[in-house]
Write a structure and sequence with these properties.
4-stranded mixed beta sheet; single chain; Butyryl-CoA Dehydrogenase, subunit A, domain 3; 10 helices; globular; about 375 residues; Butyryl-Coa Dehydrogenase, subunit A, domain 1; alpha+beta; Butyryl-CoA Dehydrogenase, subunit A, domain 2; binds flavin-adenine dinucleotide
Length: about 375
């Protein structure tokens, strides 16, 4: 992987550039691009990244604070892994997202019990917020957690849960009261009686995904993260950090598409020259590169702003996620077009990227929701000026 030009931007320090280089070398040596069995590949990627220490980039030590994670490093890691493999990026990011609520709001015992094992790749983490009727509209969440004796009893169904079936534990958001202040977060270990995590959902860009069913699933009070009623805050604070990094993964996919395209157009001969000689093709390349640089600017502006101490980066993160994922889709589509028939042939890199990018425009807040977030903030700012 050639060093992306945005690494020269003043957002980065020397250790960021070293990280991008070292992880790029590691990924090229250790990450298989087309694994046969994505479930097994996901488990072994988590173990491999844990052994080398890469997961400490997204999972702080029990004594560290989640807020102190270096978001630029997180983004560079997702960009670099995403360049190589969407599954490797997914395996990395889910450890951070699944452990995020514990890092941010867990007590000392919870942090000791889960974070080191997640960082070493010994426990696979998952984040269970969405339900069939509560995707974009999180407040419609209906899974209940009813206080009972020394703990809570969970009933309901979660769907679209990444790592369902392979996770060692799930951070589950359930209703303990009315309205958006009535949500709470719980750690539910896989294998807890009353939890069924065996229903899987096949995806166009395969990664472990499924539905969780809770039937009188009893968890102790010690499974509660933070205070009852703080679930919405816990979920949104976690997503606030990870939203920018989804844009970074998209950036990695787009960069790969551009590199593949540059290689292809220079050697594809037609009409007595190469594709690269044609002005129409050059114009396409220029637009692809410009969209990539614009994405990088937005992603690393958001990451840098958070690292520089901003408490919330809601607008910046929403812009980065929405723009970079949509731009990556356009860049990859242009790549597929320039590859002609090879672009839509199963097994080609750009065909894989074409499938891989699609879910990123939907999960962790679809583009339309990010636009609502940006507009709301703009209007609030205008109101207070
Ligand atoms: C691959 C994948 C992995 C996922 N992993 C997880 C996970 O690990 N954990 C988890 O909890 N969830 C996960 N999800 C769920 C994901 O967060 C939801 O799919 C997402 O929030 C959208 O919800 P939905 O699918 O119900 O779509 P809907 O909410 O039904 O939205 C459908 C469309 O309508 C648009 N829309 C909705 N509301 C508005 C509005 N007010 N204005 C304009 N447009 C609107 C949306 O933007 C979207 O385009 C995952 C999803 C996918 C696809």
């Amino acid at each position: 992987m050639r060093p992306p030009s945005h690494l020269a931007l003043p957002f980065f320090e020397a250790h960021h550039r070293d990280l991008a280089h070292e992880l790029g070398v590691w990924a090229a040596e250790h990450v298989e691009e087309e694994p046969e069995d994505e479930t097994e590949a996901c488990r072994s990627l988590v173990r491999a990244m844990g052994e080398v220490g890469w997961l400490t980039l997204c999972v702080p030590s029990p004594a560290g604070r989640f807020e102190q994670l270096d978001v630029r490093s997180l983004c560079l890691a997702r960009e670099t892994l995403g360049y190589r493999s969407a599954l490797a990026d997914f395996a990395f990011a889910m450890q951070g997202l699944g452990a995020g609520p514990i890092s941010l709001f867990g007590n000392e015992e919870q942090r000791e019990a889960y974070l080191p094992a997640v960082a070493r790749g010994e426990k696979v983490a998952a984040f269970a917020l969405s339900e069939a009727e509560a995707g974009s509209d999180v407040a419609a969440l209906a899974t209940t957690a009813t206080p009972d004796g020394e703990g809570f009893v969970l009933n309901g169904e979660k769907t679209w849960i990444s790592n369902a079936g392979i996770a060692d534990f799930y951070v589950v958001f359930a209703r303990t009261g009315e309205g958006s202040r009535g949500l709470s977060a719980f750690i539910v270990d896989a294998g807890t009686p009353g939890l069924d995590d065996t229903a899987s959902i096949p995806l166009i860009a395969p990664h472990p995904l499924g539905t969780l069913t809770f039937t009188d699933c009893r968890v102790p009070r010690s499974a509660l993260i933070g205070e009852p009623g703080h679930g919405m805050r816990i979920a949104l604070s976690t997503l606030d950090v990870f939203r920018t990094t989804v844009g970074a993964a998209a950036l990695g996919f787009a960069l790969r598409a551009l590199d593949e395209t540059l290689r292809h157009v220079r050697c594809r001969e037609l009409f007595g020259g190469t594709l690269a000689d044609l002005p129409v093709v050059q114009s396409k390349l220029a637009v692809m590169a410009t969209e990539i640089d614009a994405s990088a600017g937005l992603v690393y502006r958001a990451a840098w702003t958070k690292d520089a101490g901003a408490e919330r980066v809601t607008k910046e993160a929403a812009m980065a996620k929405a723009y970079a994922t949509e731009a990556a889709q356009r860049v990859i589509d242009a790549a597929v077009q320039l590859f002609g028939g090879h672009g839509v042939t199963t097994g080609s890199v750009v065909e894989r990227l074409y499938r891989d990018i699609r879910p990123l425009r939907i999960y962790e807040g679809a583009t339309e929701i990010q636009h609502l977030v940006i507009a709301r903030q703009l209007l609030n700012e205008a109101e207070s000026n």
